[in-house]
Amino acid sequence: MNPISQKPPVAPAIPLLVGMIAISFAPILVRYSDAPVAVQGMWRMLFTLVLMLPFAGGKQLRALRAIKPADWGLLLAAGFFLALHFLLWMASLSYTSIASSTLILSLEPVFVMIGAYFLFGDRLSRKALAGLVAALIGIAIVGAGDSSLSGDALKGDLLSLLGTVAVAVNMLLAKRILERVPSFLYSLVVFAVTAFCFYLYNVGTGADMAGYPSREWLVFAGLAIVPTVFGHLIFNWLLHYVKPATISMSVLAEPVGASILGLILFGEAIGNWQLIGGAFVIAGLTLYMRSEAEAYDLPAEQAS
């Protein structure tokens, strides 16, 4: 039985489309900035926090005081791994193409699935396993094609891969924390920890955190408003009304949308290796998402 019974105030297709378009702009905005990626990441989180704080009422403060010490440890770890994800993935865009970087990033649900299998004992269906294999073959094809172009492109692919593993760890931690902490409060705390991690990194590397022209501040604000608020926060809100598998399918929009924008705005042609590998990745992820949707539709006693 589908446990979602709430009726959304608008047709889910509308915010879902907005979110899919919004997340496609993340790599574009990163490319437009000349600031170090850790500075971009810090201001992205800080601007997002400023936008969220007006909605944090007394209920959130009471929930904040109720967080147990063990959960604080998980929240700190989640914020650290989110910062690591942004640092590695955003850095990858300086070396490899937008298409390759975002295709690799779309493997996030695959790494979450692998982690959930080993950490939580979640079972893998044959369809999910086949999807995993197909997606990994696709990334191997993309990497092989990029390695023939330059060592820098392969370095960028590796950075994106490591960044994807980091965000998968963040998601696995979130899976545990969100059983006890409200999602809005979780986002507030984790974003604050992430911003602080970036601040420490910037201090350690001696990065200039404030001396930027107005164009850069527009990019920083754009990263907070477009892919974060109109992307990820909309997806979090939609989880109250649609299946998680529906939201997960949105990861397929980022490499497609970002690659098209990269072609239009930066003249980045999509090579044959990327097309072939991308087809494997999207086919594999689609197979996995379908298996997730089927498991989600099962009665609890059958799906457990």
Describe the structure.
The chain is an all-alpha fold and 304 residues long. The protein has one domain. Helix 5 packs across helix 10. The protein is globular. It starts with 12 loop residues before the first helix and ends with a helix. The C terminus is likely disordered.
Task: Name a few traits of the molecule.
mainly alpha; 304 residues; globular; 15 helices; DMT family transporter; single chain; EmrE-like; disordered C terminus
Tally of distinct domains: 1
Shape by Cα distribution: globular
Into which percent range does the helicity of residues fall?
over 70%
| Alpha-carbon distance between the two ends | 13 Å
| Beta fraction | under 5%
Task: Tell me the Rg in angstroms.
Answer: 19 Å
Kindly name the structural category.
mainly alpha
The average pLDDT value, as a whole number, equals: 85
Mind summarizing the main beta sheet? none
Poorly predicted regions? 298-304
Order of helices and strands: HHHHHHHHHHHHHHH
Q: How many strand segments?
A: 0
Number of helices, counting only DSSP H or I runs of 4 residues or more: 15
Multimeric status of the protein: single chain
Main location: membrane
Membrane topology: Multi-pass membrane protein
Protein name: DMT family transporter
Domain EamA: 16-142, 155-288
